[in-house]
Design goal:
By secondary structure, the chain is an alpha+beta fold. The protein contains 14 helices and 20 strands. Helix content is 32%, strand content 25%.
Length: 490
C-alpha cells in the first residue's frame, strides 16, 4: 500500500465539501480526497430539488417554537438553530471575501421568511410566538400582522379566494434566505481541487476496516469497469447520507452500536410558471396538523436555482426502504443488527402516529394533496403544478435507557473513541447547519490540534466559541457584516 492519505471523505454532498474546506483552510498541505459513488456531486439530499433550501434559521419554522403546557412559547431550539445558521453564513462570507467562492447570488439569495396560520387557536399561538421572538437580537426585524391587506402585500398568493371571516395571521422577516446547497457543494469542491485535493466520482465504497497500525483501509469499486481499489487513510469522514449508517456499521466501531435508521421519502408540487412565480417571493411555513411529525410542516417556498425562480409546495411524505434516493430496496432490512433491533422495534411502537401519518399520505388522492396547497394558495390551478420527488431522509433511531429506543428528528455525529473515523446520521436542519456541525466534529476528532487551530477558525467564523444571543451589540454587527459580504442587503 502507498503512504496513507490524510483525509478520506466518503460522500460528495455538502457535509463532506464543508469539512474538506475547513480542513484545507486549517492544514493546506493535507492530502484530502472525496469519494462519491454517483456521476456527479450533490446528487442526493444536497441537490436543490431534493430539499427546501430554506437556510434554516428558525425564522419561520414553527416546529422549533413549541407551546409549553402553561401556554408560553419555548424559543430554545429556535435560538440554537439560528445561532448555528449564523455560523454557516459567517464561514461562507469569509470564503467569498477571500475569493474562494464566486458571486454569492450563485448560491444564496435574500428571500423573506414568513409564518402563516389560520384559525383562532393558531392565530393566538403565532401572536405569542412573535412576542417571544421580536426583541431577540437574532430575530430583529420580525413583523406581525392579522390584517389581510398587509399579508397580501407580503405574499399576494395567500389571500385572494380566502374567506374574509377566517382568522389569519402572519409573521414576516426580510433577512431570510434561499440557499442552493447543490451549487455551494460544487463551488466548495472546486476550491478543494484548485488547492490540491482530489474528487473521485463513481467510486462506490464497499468496506471500511482498521489496519494494524491504526489507520483505515477503504475498499472501493469503480462503477465503470468494476475495478476494485483500496486506499489507506489516517482520518475518515462518512458523509454518505443514508448510507452513513451502513458504512459505520462495516467499520466495526463500538460507538455505532444501538443506532438504526427510519427512511422517509418526500414529494413536492412545483411550478415554473413565470406569472405565478412572480407573485410569490418568500418562504412561507404553516403549522403541522395536530399529531403530525415535524417533517410534515407545510410550506410554500420560492426556490432560486441557476438564477431562475420556481415555487415548491409540500412536503408530502412517503415510504421507501431505500436509504438514498439512488439507493437499494434492501437498505432498511440490511441495516438491522442484533444490537439495534430492540431500539428500532421500540421506536416504531412509540411512533405509531408517524406510521399512521405515512400510511395516510401514501393512500391520499392527488385531489386531496392538492387541497393542502389550496389551503395556502386558494387560487392555485392544478395545470400549473407538477410533482417532483425529493431526497430520501433517514431519521436516527438510538438506544434510550427508559424507552429502549427513540426516533430522533435531527442530526448526530458518531465518532470513534480515538477520533480517527466519524460519520453523520440524521436529517433536518442538516445542510443549513453544516458548518457548526463540522466544527463540532473537528473539535471532537482533533482535540490535540484545536488550540493551535482556534485563531484560524476565529478568523473564518468570528463568533466561534461565543453565543451571539448573549451579546446583542455583537450580534447586530456580525449579522450586518455577514449580510454585506454575502450581498444580502440592499
Amino acid at each position: 500500500m502507498p503512504e496513507p492519505i490524510d483525509v478520506a471523505l466518503i460522500g460528495g454532498g455538502i457535509m463532506s465539501a464543508t469539512l474538506g474546506t475547513l480542513l484545507k483552510q486549517l492544514e493546506p498541505e493535507w492530502d484530502i480526497r472525496i469519494y462519491e459513488r454517483l456521476s456527479d456531486l450533490a446528487m442526493e439530499s444536497s441537490n436543490p430539488w431534493n430539499n427546501a433550501g430554506t437556510g434554516h434559521a428558525a425564522l419561520c419554522e414553527l416546529n422549533y417554537t413549541p407551546e409549553k403546557p402553561d401556554g408560553s412559547i419555548d424559543i430554545t431550539s429556535a435560538v440554537k438553530v439560528n445561532e448555528q445558521f449564523q455560523v454557516s453564513r459567517q464561514f461562507w462570507a469569509h470564503l467569498v471575501d477571500q475569493g474562494h467562492l464566486p458571486e454569492p447570488s450563485s448560491f444564496i439569495n435574500a428571500t423573506p421568511h414568513m409564518s402563516f396560520v389560520w384559525g383562532e387557536s393558531n392565530v393566538e399561538y403565532l401572536r405569542k410566538r412573535y412576542e417571544a421572538l421580536k426583541d431577540h437580537p437574532l430575530f430583529a426585524g420580525m413583523e406581525y400582522s392579522e390584517d389581510a391587506a398587509q399579508i397580501r402585500r407580503w405574499a399576494p398568493l395567500l389571500i385572494p379566494g380566502r374567506a374574509k371571516a377566517q382568522p389569519i395571521a402572519a409573521t414576516y422577516i426580510a433577512s431570510g434566505t434561499d440557499v442552493d446547497f447543490g451549487a455551494l457543494t460544487k463551488y466548495l469542491a472546486r476550491y478543494l481541487v484548485a488547492n490540491g485535493a482530489k474528487v473521485e466520482l463513481e467510486h462506490r465504497v464497499t468496506n471500511i476496516s482498521r489496519t494494524k497500525r491504526g489507520t483505515w483501509r477503504i475498499a472501493m469499486r469503480q462503477e465503470i469497469g468494476l475495478t476494485p481499489i483500496e486506499v489507506e487513510a489516517r482520518f475518515v469522514f462518512v458523509g454518505a447520507g443514508g448510507h452513513a449508517l451502513k458504512l459505520l456499521q462495516k467499520s466495526g466501531i463500538p460507538e455505532i452500536k444501538g443506532f438504526g435508521g427510519f427512511p422517509v421519502s418526500g414529494e413536492f408540487l412545483r411550478t415554473d410558471d413565470p406569472e405565478v412565480v412572480a407573485k410569490h417571493r418568500a418562504k412561507v411555513y404553516g403549522k403541522a396538523a395536530v399529531g403530525s411529525p415535524p417533517m410534515s410542516v407545510p410550506h410554500l417556498d420560492t426556490r432560486v436555482v441557476d438564477g431562475k425562480a420556481s415555487l415548491m409546495f409540500g412536503p408530502y411524505a412517503g415510504f421507501s426502504p431505500k436509504f438514498l434516493k439512488h439507493g437499494s430496496w434492501w437498505d432498511l432490512p440490511g441495516s438491522v443488527r442484533p444490537h439495534n433491533l430492540v431500539p428500532m422495534v421500540r421506536a416504531g411502537l412509540s411512533n405509531l402516529s408517524l406510521v399512521r401519518y405515512l400510511v395516510g399520505q401514501l393512500v391520499a388522492r392527488r385531489s386531496t394533496k392538492f387541497a393542502a396547497l389550496e389551503e395556502f394558495f386558494p387560487g392555485a390551478d392544478p395545470k400549473d403544478w407538477y410533482k417532483i420527488t425529493a431526497g430520501q431522509r433517514v431519521q436516527v433511531i438510538k438506544k434510550d435507557p427508559e424507552k429502549g429506543g427513540v426516533l430522533q428528528f435531527g442530526t448526530e455525529v458518531v465518532a470513534s473513541a480515538d477520533g480517527t473515523i466519524a460519520g453523520l446520521l440524521g436529517a433536518s436542519p442538516g445542510a443549513s447547519t453544516a458548518v457548526p456541525i463540522m466544527l463540532g466534529l473537528v473539535e471532537k476528532c482533533f482535540p490535540d490540534r484545536i488550540e493551535a487551530w482556534a485563531p484560524k477558525i476565529a478568523a473564518m467564523v468570528p463568533s466561534f466559541g461565543t453565543q451571539l444571543a448573549a451579546k446583542p451589540a455583537v450580534a447586530k454587527r456580525t449579522l450586518a457584516a455577514t449580510a454585506k459580504k454575502l450581498k444580502l442587503t440592499a
